[in-house]
Design a protein that fits this description.
2 copies of one chain form a homodimer. Chain A has 8 helices and 9 strands. By secondary structure, chain A is of the alpha/beta class. The structure holds nicotinamide-adenine-dinucleotide (NAD) (2 copies). Chain A binds a DNA duplex through helix 1 and helix 3.
DNA sequence: AGGAAAATGTTAATTATTTCACAATGTTAA
DNA sequence: TTAACATTGTGAAATAATTAACATTTTCCT
C-alpha cells in the first residue's frame, strides 16, 4: 500500500475533491465512469486506482461516495494532521491562504510570514502574519512541517535554507527560482509559465 | 519532432527559464549536469531531451546557452505569438498577470476580465480590465486564443462554455471546479491542494 | 606522444503508467 | 426463468518515460 504510484496519489486527491462536491449534492453512489468524466480520464483508470487502495464497489451501483471519501482520507491524510505555513503574503500567498482556509482539516495553515512590517501582526483570512525574522522560532513553536514559498524569486534560496534548518520536511516552491534541499526534504515546484507554454505548444500541434 | 513527449515539453520550458538566468549572468556554456542540478533531475535526462530536439553540444564544453535558448524557443514558441487573457482578476489573477507581465514575448496577456464594476476599466500591471459581459467581443477583437480562468469555482463551467464558444483553443483552469471542453480545445487544470496533499503524503512515507 | 579524465550522444534495458480485454456478477425486463 | 445489459475487478499487453551502459571525442597533463 505504501508504494502507490505518484500519479495515483495525485488522482486520489482529485477524486476526493470531486466526491466531496457530489456528497454535498446528496449523491450516495457514483460510477467509475462518472468520476472519469469529471477528471477527463478513463473509467478503467479510476477503477484501477480504487483497486490499488483496496476499495471495492458494488456491482451495478458503483462506489459509495462517503466510504470512498473516508478511505481516500485514510490513505493520503496523516492521522495527526500537519501544520503548514505560507512564506510571503503577497497576491499569490493570499490566494493560496484564502483557498485553503477552512478546507482541509488535516492540513492547516497555521502561520504566514512576511518581511513587510505593514503586514506583520495583521491577520489574513484568519491566520496571523509573523515577521520573517521569527521564522525559525515560530516553525518550532507551532510544529510546522510543510512550507509554501511565495516570496520573490531572488529570496527563495535563502529562505529555503532557513526553512530546512528550522526542520521543515516538505516544501512547495511557487517562486520561479528552483531551490536545493537535502534529500530528506520532499520538494515540489510548480510554474504557471510552464503550464501555459505547454498549452500553447499542444494548441499549435492540434 | 512533433511527437516530443509531454514531459519533455515541460522540461524544455523549465530549461529555458533556467538558461535565461544563466545567460543574464554572462554564462556562455553549460553542462548537462549543471542544468540537471538546477532542475533536480539527472544529466542523462537533460541530454536525452536536448537530443530529442536535435541540438548538439560541444564535447567537454557543454551546450551553448544562447543557442539552446533560441532553439527551445523555435520548438515551443509559436512563430506569430499567442494572445492570452485572464478571467477573474482577484488575488490569483493578479499574481499571474504580474508574474507574466513583460516576461515572454511570444505569449502576451492582452486582456483581463472581471464582473466587478469597480475593476472594469482599471489597468492591472499595464493590462486593461474589461467587463465579463464583453468577453466574446474582446476575445474576437484581440484575437485571444488561450484563456486562464481564475474566477470562483461555481462560475467556471459557465465561463468555460462562453470561452469555448468565443473561439478559445487552449484553456488553463485554476478554479477548483473541473470543466468540460470539446476535444479540439486543449485543457490543463491545476490544483494547489493536490500538490500539497502529495507533499504531505510523501513526507509521511519518508 | 600517449594516457587519463570528462563530457556528449545514443542504443538498449528497465521501470512506470495506462489501456485492453474479458470474466464475474448483480439488475432489469420480457 | 431467462436473456440482455451494465458494471466492477483484474491479469496481461501496450505504451511512455527514465536510466544504464558505453562508445566516442576532446582536452589536459606529463
Ligand atoms: N509558480 C507560479 O506559477 C507563480 C505564479 C505567480 C507568481 N509566482 C511567484 O510567486 C512569488 C510571489 O508572487 P506575488 O504575486 O504574490 O508577489 P508579491 O510581490 O505580491 O508578494 C511577495 C510578498 O513577499 C514578501 N516578501 C518579500 N521578501 C520577503 C522575504 N525575504 N521574506 C518574507 N517575505 C518577503 C513581500 O512583502 C510580499 O508580501 C513571486 O516569486 C512570483 O514570481 C509564481
Ligand atoms: N488552482 C489552485 O491551486 C488555486 C489556488 C488558489 C485559488 N484558486 C481558485 O482560483 C479562483 C480565484 O481565486 P482568488 O483568490 O483570486 O479569488 P478572488 O475572490 O480574489 O478573485 C475572484 C475574482 O473573480 C471575479 N469574478 C467573480 N465572478 C466572476 C464572473 N462571473 N466573471 C468574471 N469575474 C468574476 C471577482 O470579482 C474577483 O475579482 C477561485 O476559484 C479559487 O478557488 C485556485
Amino acid at each position: 500500500m505504501k508504494n502507490l504510484p505518484h500519479k495515483t496519489i495525485e488522482r486520489l486527491s482529485q477524486y476526493r475533491r470531486a466526491l466531496l462536491l457530489c456528497h454535498a449534492k446528496g449523491m450516495t453512489y457514483i460510477y467509475s465512469h462518472e468520476i472519469a468524466k469529471i477528471q477527463h480520464i478513463t473509467a478503467v483508470q479510476v477503477r484501477r486506482d480504487i483497486m490499488l487502495i483496496g476499495y471495492t464497489g458494488t456491482l451495478r451501483k458503483g462506489y459509495n461516495v462517503k466510504e470512498l471519501i473516508d478511505l481516500i482520507g485514510q490513505i493520503i491524510d496523516s492521522k495527526e494532521g500537519i501544520n503548514v505555513c505560507i512564506v510571503g503574503i503577497g497576491n499569490l500567498g493570499r490566494a493560496i491562504t484564502n483557498y485553503f482556509s477552512g478546507k482541509r482539516t488535516k492540513l492547516s495553515i497555521v502561520a504566514v510570514f512576511d518581511v513587510d512590517k505593514g503586514k506583520v501582526g495583521k491577520k489574513y483570512y484568519g491566520i496571523e502574519c509573523f515577521d520573517i525574522a521569527d521564522l525559525t522560532k515560530v516553525i518550532k513553536e507551532k510544529k510546522i512541517e510543510i512550507a509554501i514559498m511565495t516570496v520573490p524569486g531572488e529570496d527563495a534560496p535563502m529562505i529555503s535554507d532557513i526553512l530546512v534548518k528550522a526542520g521543515i520536511i516538505g516544501m512547495l516552491n511557487y517562486t520561479p527560482k528552483p531551490v536545493n534541499v537535502p534529500k530528506e526534504v520532499y520538494l515540489e515546484e510548480y510554474d504557471m509559465i510552464t503550464s501555459l507554454e505547454k498549452v500553447a505548444f499542444f494548441v499549435k500541434t492540434h
